Amino acid sequence: MGTLQHIQHQISALNDLIKINNDRIAGYQKAIEGIEDFSLKTVFEGYADQSKGYVNQLNDYILLLGGSPADGTTLAGKFYHAWIDVKSAFSKKDSLSILSDCEYGEDVAKGSYRKALDDKELIWEDEKVVNLLTNHLNGLKMAHDAIKALRDSTALKEKQEA
After folding, report:
1. What confidence tier does 152 reach under pLDDT thresholds 50, 70, 90?
2. Helix (H) or strand (E) run with residue 55 in it
3. How far, rounded to the nearest angstrom, does the alpha carbon of residue 83 sit from its chain's CA centroid?
4. Helix (H) or strand (E) holding 159
5. How confident is the model at residue 156 (pLDDT cuts 50, 70, 90)?
6. Are 32 and 45 in contact (CB under 8 A)?
7. DSSP states of 125-144 as a string?
8. CA distance 94 to 60
9. What share of the chain is helix, strand, coil (3-state, %, to 5)?
10. C-alpha angle with apex 37: 54 to 39, nearest 5 degrees?
11. How far is Cα 99 from Cα 28, in angstroms, rounded to an integer?
């Protein structure tokens, strides 16, 4: 793979991560709209802001590589959010299902970062981008674990109240 192809491959991978973060932002915005619990809204706003920061950092690096940053979401994300809209129309918007949806979104985001870091064709020669992606992945892991803990405690609470 030539140098130009290598750079284009890096830009493409980073743009995919921007789209994943945009999916994450859209998902948390839907969660905020669908829930009444103020403390959960605050958590969701924090994670949406986290992804906005990630997008800005990825944009900066893509520009440094001479590329054009993406601004949309993934096709899978569009289908997922449409499915959430349909599901919400026919079911009660309860905290447990919203937290489960958020956990799923966190799994997708983590997987995308892991894939980019593990891609054998992407030889990340710049340690700054490796550190950036690793920091993002670590932040996503912490968010996932926090969302999972909230989901588990909500499930336990609902089970005890039943």
Report:
1. very high
2. helix 38-64
3. 17
4. helix 127-161
5. very high
6. yes
7. --HHHHHHHHHHHHHHHHHH
8. 38
9. 80, 0, 20
10. 55
11. 10
Q: How many angstroms separate the first and last alpha carbons of the chain?
A: 60
Lookup result for tokens 């569009």 = 78
* Position 105, amino acid: G
Give the closest residue to 93 by CA, choosing from 36, 41, 146.
36
Q: Which of 5-19, 48-62, 77-91 has the lowest mean pLDDT?
A: 77-91
Q: Which residue has the tokens 């593990």?
A: 118
Give the span between the Cα atoms of 113 and 138, in whole angstroms. Answer: 10
The encoded tokens of residue 9 equal 């491959």
For residue 76, the one-letter residue type is: A
Burial of residue 64 (number of CB atoms within 10 Å: 0-12, 13-18, 19+): exposed
Q: How many CB atoms lie within 10 A of CB 80?
A: 20
> Which tokens hold the place of 42?
């605050």
